[in-house]
Amino acid sequence: MAEHTVVKVGSRKSQLAMIQTNTVIDVLKKTFSDIKFEIVAMSTVGDKILDAALSKIGEKSLFTRELEVALEEKEVDFVVHSLKDLPTTLPDGLVVGCVFKRDSPFDAVVMHPKHEGKKLEDLEEGSIIGTSSLRRAAQLGRKFPQFKFENIRGNLNTRFRKLDEDEKYDAIILAEAGLDRMGWRHRISQVLDTDVCMYAVSQGAMGVECRYDDQKTLDLLATIHDSDTALCCIAERAYLKELGGGCSVPVSVETKLRDNKIEIRGGVFSLDGTEAVIDSHSATLKTDIDDEPPLKKQKETSNGPKLFSSIVHTKGISQEKCRIAENVGKELADRLLQTEAAGILATARQQTEVAILEEKKRKEAEKNETEMIQIPKC
């Protein structure tokens, strides 16, 4: 009996991350039955620090760095991520080898059991809404200034436990896609329209990260690459990168492909949601891969795959479409930066930096207090 080829797949340890990783593996198995996939699960910084808001931790790659180190050291062949967790700039030599077909990008409301059947607009003034996202808090604070928005951290299981067992939160806001993947659609009280809350860049999409020079893995991943999702995420990631955004500033987006056009709408918000700039942009996409100039095709073949927003260009979609998608995201960001959005972003960053320093001081004080308690008395 011939030995199976072994492919090692990196994943976070959370239940949702494992579900997502197994989803990708199951689809690959349908085509590559001779490959044995082994999951290498690990915890990341973001999984370990649960007593502070993501924006206050002050580090990048919170949910990806340990996995990326494993990739760099060739301990795994590829890593499955929620694409929204991947920074817009990846470590040298690493790329998004494919983008899996996007599920719902929208945000959803999960009510405390005592509010079953209600929507946000039905809650009383002073209700506490749990979210770990500055983007959600800013947009919902703008629409519902009568509510209080407080941080809630942990994986989905932990957040549900905090909601259901504590009396602190009246509702929490989560990604609809994550709830669906966990089999918890029945707990969704309300899906938020983008007029209320635009979603995060790449929300609902899974990205598979691998090494740029690993052609064997790139060929494997190309079979599950979804072109439409990739085009939207290329535009969204280009938009976010140009703005210099991340989890430290409230930036939102909505992207659509229709009638051979890519349309992107983006928003920049102050932390409290009282200030906002929202704009949109669109461009026509070429329809045929044969529109690609032969010289460009030849250049890509000789120099390796072309990257757009760190996402590898694959066969079945023209480079020109990818380039247009990337440009439309950049151009929207540039337009926003020519308005008061630039000042809003600068202020939000300053406020976040202050919050990071305060959080570090709090941690240091806790550490000192613990050390004092442990010092034996003479």
Automatic annotation (TrEMBL):
Pfam family name, one: Porphobil_deamC
InterPro entries in alphabetical order: HemC, Porphobilin_deaminase_N, Porphobilinogen_deaminase_C, Porphobilinogen_deaminase_C_sf
GO BP: heme biosynthetic process
EC number(s) reported in the record: 2.5.1.61
GO molecular function, one term: hydroxymethylbilane synthase activity
Start and end residues of each stretch annotated as Disordered: 287-306
Enzyme class of the recorded protein, top EC level: transferase
Domain Porphobilinogen deaminase C-terminal, residue spans: 230-283
Gene Ontology CC terms: cytoplasm
Cofactor(s) annotated in UniProt: dipyrromethane
Keywords: Porphyrin biosynthesis, Transferase
Keyword match Cytoplasm: no
Domain Porphobilinogen deaminase N-terminal: 7-218
UniProt family annotation: Belongs to the HMBS family.
PANTHER family, alphabetized: PORPHOBILINOGEN DEAMINASE
Record-given protein name: hydroxymethylbilane synthase
